[in-house]
């Protein structure tokens, strides 16, 4: 039986979500706007601590694939952050979207796979659904959590403030269960919410300014505060395993540095034998004679690879080297995940 996911809503009434407000029947009739074929997503800016005050709204930070759900009279499209059509990859979400009874809408959200505690599990999303070998499977287990409404009933809502967009979104999603569920706003002290999220093993929280329009890019209207710091890096090579000659001992990683690349260290934990074999087979097809990025005196048995895929690991310390890193999986090229930028981290 489908269940509703409320990982940040325990018995404590301080953290209980407020009920959705009723629709205002006096809302004006606005002229129809053309429906965008794609909207560049609004991105959250990483911060170490959450802001306080009534101007900010708080949500769970989901760990999955950022998607835009386009509902049109002619059908449903599910678009990745990079603009690729993944409707065929999420059949359960597409079917649920058709049953919402909406004429036209664009919902911004995250597709995840939930564990038994209703926490998003990125590894499970890759291994049980989208990952596979070649990433060609479809996902019947994924749940789409919309957290914003960009277009609705013929009206472009990107210029409206977040509180208005959320009001409309809650109207038709409140109480929904199954493959599409509202990413609920949670209420309480921001520091307590973050601590509670971390104690539950969640990735963190997202903080959004209630009065801001929807602006593409990382404008600072949305913030992300993480419990365990994780970012996407580029794999530039690997070091052979000292145990298995056909295995991988560690992956060498790079981050962006303006328009260039910078070596940030390696990761040697988090992948099992099956992961290592798949990575080795994939990387061996992409070997180059010279490292794509200088590796600062690594061992000579490295197999450099110029590969356009990121993997999720913990972020760098001030010495520009990864510390206590753990591999979480390969992201798809179409996902267009933002690769960690060393320049931004040094400035911030």
TrEMBL record:
It catalyses: ATP + (deoxyribonucleotide)n-3'-hydroxyl + 5'-phospho-(deoxyribonucleotide)m = (deoxyribonucleotide)n+m + AMP + diphosphate. It comes from the Bacteria. This is DNA ligase (ATP). Keywords: Ligase. One of its GO terms (molecular function) is DNA ligase (ATP) activity. Residues 135-226 form the ATP-dependent DNA ligase family profile domain. It is an enzyme of class 6 (ligase). It holds the Pfam family DNA_ligase_A_C. Its EC number is 6.5.1.1. Residues 1-35 are annotated as: Disordered. Gene3D superfamilies: 3.30.1490.70, DNA ligase/mRNA capping enzyme (3.30.470.30), Nucleic acid-binding proteins (2.40.50.140). Belongs to the ATP-dependent DNA ligase family. GO terms for biological process: DNA recombination; DNA repair.
């Amino acid at each position: 039986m489908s269940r509703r996911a409320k990982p940040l809503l325990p018995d404590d009434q301080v953290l209980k979500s407020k009920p959705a407000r009723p629709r205002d029947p006096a809302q004006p009739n606005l002229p129809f706007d053309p429906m965008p074929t794609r909207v560049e997503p609004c991105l959250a800016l990483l911060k170490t601590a959450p802001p306080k005050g009534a101007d900010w709204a708080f949500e769970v930070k989901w760990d999955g694939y950022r998607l835009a759900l386009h509902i049109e009279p002619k059908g449903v499209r599910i678009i990745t952050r990079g603009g690729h059509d993944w409707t065929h990859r999420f059949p359960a979400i597409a079917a649920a979207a058709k049953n919402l009874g909406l004429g036209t809408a664009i919902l911004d959200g995250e597709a995840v796979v939930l564990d038994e505690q209703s926490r998003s599990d990125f590894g499970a999303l890759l291994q049980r659904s989208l990952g596979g070998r070649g990433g060609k499977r479809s996902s019947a287990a994924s749940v789409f959590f919309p957290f914003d409404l960009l277009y609705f009933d013929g009206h472009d809502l990107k210029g409206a403030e977040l509180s208005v967009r959320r009001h409309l979104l809650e109207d038709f999603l409140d109480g929904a269960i199954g493959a599409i569920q509202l990413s609920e706003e949670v209420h309480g002290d921001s520091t307590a919410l973050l601590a509670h999220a971390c104690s539950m093993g969640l990735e963190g929280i997202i903080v959004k300014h209630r009065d801001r329009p929807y602006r593409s890019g990382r404008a600072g209207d949305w913030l992300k505060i993480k419990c365990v710091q994780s970012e996407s890096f580029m794999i530039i090579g690997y070091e052979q395993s000292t145990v298995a000659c056909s295995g991988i001992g560690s992956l060498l990683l790079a981050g962006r540095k303006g328009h260039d690349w910078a070596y940030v260290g390696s990761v040697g934990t988090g992948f099992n034998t099956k992961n290592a074999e798949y990575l080795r087979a994939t990387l061996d097809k992409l070997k180059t004679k010279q490292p794509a990025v200088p590796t600062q005196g690594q061992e000579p048995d490295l197999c450099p690879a110029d590969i356009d895929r990121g993997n999720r690991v913990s972020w760098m310390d001030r010495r520009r080297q990864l510390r206590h890193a753990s591999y979480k999986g390969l992201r798809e090229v179409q996902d267009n995940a933002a690769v960690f930028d060393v320049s931004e981290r040094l400035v911030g």
